[in-house]
């Protein structure tokens, strides 16, 4: 148990996708990211990850902001990825990519047909379009990154876990820009974290396995590597992870229903095993955070 050092150069962020109202799990992650940065005296950013416009819900921008303010969180700058397309286009220029016209079902079939196809593992793109001859000139092309044939090893500062992934074998050449022109999450997140000077990425544990891909992109682009902190996902009473699509109750509904933010802060803290009273102010939580989270 140590007190995190004062690190005014720390930059952290909360990066929600505005696809619907925040649920309690999203809010807990935002709270932890905020506590980490404010405990160190650093800068906190709010970044809307809204590149996939088909999934964006306009009211989610406002309700997310209102939810965060209601809990007492503030931020030093706000961004929308949809307004930063040229940043991703420039990053893409610096990478060795190739056009791919495979459909999902073609990829699934060629994986099934190949001997030794992994069972239950994430589908690894078999590299069909690495050779020009296989491409369909009449179809819109995605751009895939020719991943380096190396094992990328990363570690997590929250859980202490280590992960090594051979990108060529375990991930395959992944898409950086879709056939419809939308830049992929991995590229945008890496380009933005670098451009915004993010030093510490605190986010949900569902993204832990994405770290080797993101670190490989950072290395290829000459970006610094931030420190990673993957926090547990909140579960419902059945032990299933809360999800917007799963109908988890929204923070907006609690807020508009007159819930007490001090009680909610305490509840979120207790769900992490922290010892707090029935109600908690952010100052209380900053104190607990400083005592219980490694710096
Ligand atoms: N936009 C992602 C999400 O809402 C988070 C991305 C990140 O923190 O790297 O799950």
What does this structure look like?
The protein has 295 residues and is α/β, with parallel strands linked by helices. It has ten helices and ten strands. The chain is globular. The chain has helices at 24-40, 59-71, 85-93, 104-113, 167-171, 185-195, 211-221, 251-256, 261-270, 282-292, and strands spanning 11-14, 43-48, 77-80, 97-100, 142-145, 151-155, 162-166, 175-177, 200-204, 227-231. The protein has two domains: 11-90 and 196-292, HUPs (Rossmann fold, 3-Layer(aba) Sandwich); 96-177, no CATH class. Strands 1-2-3 form a three-stranded parallel beta sheet, covered by helices on one side. The protein binds glutamic acid.
Taking the sheet with the most strands, its summary is:
3 strands, parallel
In which order are the strands of the major sheet placed? 1-2-3
Return the CATH class of the largest domain.
Alpha Beta
Could you say which overall geometry the principal axes of the C-alpha atoms support?
globular
Q: Which parts are unreliable, with pLDDT below 50 for 5 consecutive residues or more?
A: none
Number of extended strands: 10
Span between termini: 9 Å
Bound molecules: glutamic acid
Strand content: 15-25%
CATH topology of the largest domain: Rossmann fold
| Discrete helix count | 10
Q: Helix/strand-derived class?
A: alpha/beta
Total number of distinct structural domains: 2
Could you say what the CATH architecture of the largest domain is?
3-Layer(aba) Sandwich
**Helix/strand order, N-terminal first:** EHEHEHEHEEEHEHEHEHHH
Radius of gyration from CA coordinates: 20 Å
What is the mean pLDDT? 91
């Amino acid at each position: 148990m140590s007190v995190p050092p004062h690190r005014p150069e720390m930059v952290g962020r909360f990066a929600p996708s505005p696809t619907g109202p925040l649920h309690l799990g999203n809010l807990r992650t935002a709270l932890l990211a905020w506590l980490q940065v404010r405990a160190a005296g650093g800068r906190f950013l709010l970044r809307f990850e809204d590149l996939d416009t088909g999934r964006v819900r306009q009211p989610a921008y406002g309700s997310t902001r209102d939810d965060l303010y209601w809990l007492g969180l503030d931020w030093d700058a706000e961004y929308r990825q949809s307004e930063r397309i040229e940043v991703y286009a420039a990053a893409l220029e610096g990478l060795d990519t190739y056009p791919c016209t495979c459909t999902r079902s073609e990829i699934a079939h060629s994986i099934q047909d190949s001997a030794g196809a992994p069972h239950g593992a994430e589908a690894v793109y078999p590299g069909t379009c690495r050779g020009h001859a296989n491409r369909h000139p009449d179809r819109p092309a995605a751009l895939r990154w020719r991943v380096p044939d190396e094992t990328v090893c990363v570690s997590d500062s929250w859980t202490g876990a280590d992960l090594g992934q051979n990108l060529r074998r375990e991930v395959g050449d992944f898409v950086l820009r879709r056939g419809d022109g939308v830049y992929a999450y991995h590229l945008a997140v890496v380009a933005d974290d670098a451009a915004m000077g993010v030093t510490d990425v605190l986010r949900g544990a569902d993204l832990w396995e994405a770290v080797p891909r993101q670190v490989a992109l950072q290395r290829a682009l000459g970006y610094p590597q931030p420190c990673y902190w993957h926090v547990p996902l909140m579960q419902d009473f059945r032990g299933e992870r809360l999800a917007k699509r799963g109908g988890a109750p929204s923070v907006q509904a609690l807020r508009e229903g007159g819930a007490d933010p001090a009680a909610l802060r305490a509840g979120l803290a207790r769900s992490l095993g922290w010892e707090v009273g029935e109600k908690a102010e952010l100052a209380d939580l900053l104190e607990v955070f400083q005592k219980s989270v490694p710096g």
